[in-house]
Design a protein that fits this description.
17 strands; 9-stranded mixed beta sheet; alpha/beta
Length: 335
């Protein structure tokens, strides 16, 4: 629906994928998996691929493909990577005019070591993204939007959170999807700036590790209850191969992933999930259907290299929703 106005706020990253051709091995105790490269060695790789990524860039492209009118608010450098990322946004129908281009700065970039299982290690440099703060935040443009999709902000972005808390509260409020990043998760749900924004968050997206760390709880349901009490309307927690769990404050819904999913690369699956779920909610679909929509979009991304290649269009999503049956289970949220 092109008349639905959305702004994504956060990072755009130039990603260099290195397909190592090897497998991640289990570390001590079999818990952590790792790649090892001998110092001084020259190691051949299967493939090197350049792509565009970053949370706000991924969600902007995803929502645009699903039919929303999307603007991207972020910061890139005046280098070839920044030019390419802005071009990619425009080619995908995203309004990049709220973006800021800074001089004499490298754009955010990642080197992603991808193994045969689809798992990856990301070597990341924040680059120009550190300049996303109150000065580079286009408040006027944001206030014209129906919905904001907020992704990770660096510490300097705290004032943006304060602005959004004001914009998304009160009469005629703007809707908000929030996918907190490491800075916010590490601060905890009860940090002042987090509490203020949680009180006005319509959709909160976290993976299981983030949800438990953010709330300092031991189980997903404890995390759900904590976040609902903080004011969030819909909380969703993803858990990789174990699917996704969400609650509207009354029922807890769980959607498993499709069987026999071919995993080429896991990068961007979380962004794709959040994009699909948000699109469904914005279009008036119920939460179980929204969980299915997010799962379908994420599964599509898993089959391609990069965070954006597998993102579905409106037509493709509608077809897959009707053809792919995912059994969503539910139970009451216990107090």
């Amino acid at each position: 629906m092109k008349d639905l106005q959305v702004m994504t706020i956060g990072g755009a990253t130039f990603d260099l994928f290195v397909r190592t051709g090897g497998a991640a091995s289990a570390g001590a105790g079999g818990q952590e998996r790792e790649l090892r490269f001998p110092v001084g060695a020259k190691i051949g790789v299967e493939q090197i691929i350049e792509t565009c990524g970053g949370g706000a860039s991924n969600t902007a492209v995803g929502l645009s493909r699903l039919g929303c009118a999307v603007a991207f608010c972020g910061v890139v450098g005046n280098d070839q990577w920044g030019e390419r990322m802005l071009k990619n946004l425009r080619e995908n129908g995203v309004d990049a005019s709220p973006a800021t281009v800074v001089e004499d700065e490298n754009s955010s970039s990642s080197i992603i070591l991808s193994v045969e299982s689809g798992e990856r290690i990301i070597l990341y440099n924040a680059g120009s993204t550190v300049h996303l703060h109150d000065v580079t935040f286009d408040r006027a443009e944001a206030q014209e939007r129906d919905w904001i999709y907020l992704t990770h902000l660096q510490k300097a972005g705290r004032e943006i959170m304060d602005d959004l808390a004001a914009m998304t509260g009160g009469e005629g409020r703007i809707g908000l999807t929030w996918n907190p990043g490491g800075t916010q998760v590490n601060a905890g749900w009860d940090a002042q700036e987090n509490r203020a924004l949680l009180a006005h968050t319509d959709i909160l997206l976290l993976n299981k590790e983030e949800a438990l760390g953010f709330t300092r709880t031991a189980t997903v349901e404890d995390a759900l209850r904590t976040l609902l009490k903080a004011g969030v309307k819909t909380v969703c927690v993803t858990d990789g191969k174990d699917g996704a769990t969400a609650t509207d404050g009354t029922q807890v819904f769980h959607c498993p992933p499709p069987e026999d999913v071919e995993v080429t690369d896991t990068t961007g699956a979380g962004d794709a999930f959040g994009t699909g779920l948000t699109w469904a909610i914005l279009n008036g679909l119920d939460l179980p259907t929204a969980l299915r929509t997010g799962t379908i979009n994420a599964t599509s991304v898993l089959g391609s290299i990069g965070a954006q290649a597998g993102l579905l269009t409106n037509t493709e999503m509608t077809k897959r929703l009707s053809s792919l049956q995912l059994p969503v289970q539910s139970h009451p949220l216990h107090s």
